[in-house]
Amino acid sequence: MQVIVLIIVLLAVLAFAIYKINNKFGTKEIMILVAVIVVSSLVFVLISRNQQEKVPLLFKQKYENEKNIKISKFTYERVNNKTVTSKTNFVYNFDYIIYKDKEEYFCKMDNVKVKKIQDEYIFENFNDIKEECQKN
Question: For the chain, which ranges sit under pLDDT 70?
Fold first, then answer.
């Protein structure tokens, strides 16, 4: 969010500079300014959403590789986002449906801790967490 505000402020300063240089700010300049604001906001939102979905997809991949069980449906919630915002420590709750022995199970894994080191995510307590599964 701070990045969007910074971009808007910089664009406003740029628009003011153009106005002072040309002594006018016509419809063409306004349309260009609005287009740049909209495009930069969309790019930021898409990049942010991609980063948010990265950890859950890594969890799904890790689970399927280690347990040799395919996850059919999957949801997640980032828990520490509500109280503390951190760029390196994350806590997630995962709910998912798996098929084991031709039977469907609803499973959940709560308080999965993830640590980010540069561009790599490491699951701190993946093997220690008790997985709760119920037969559907």
Answer: 1-4, 18-19, 22-25, 51, 81-86
* Cα dihedral value 4, 9, 10, 14, nearest 10: 140
Identify the helix (H) or strand (E) that includes residue 66: helix 27-67
* φ/ψ of residue 88, rounded to 5: -125, -20
Axis-axis angle for helices 27-67, 2-22 (nearest 10): 160
- Give the tokens for residue 34: 């609005």
CB 112 within 8 A of CB 94: yes
Q: pTM, whole model, 2 decimals?
A: 0.64
3-class SS of residue 77: strand
Q: Strand pairing partners for 106?
A: 97, 134
Measured CA to CA, the distance from residue 45 to residue 54 in angstroms comes to: 14
The two tokens of residue 44 are 């930021």
How many Å apart are CA 95 and CA 106, to the nearest integer? Answer: 7
40 CB neighbour count, 10 Å cutoff:
16
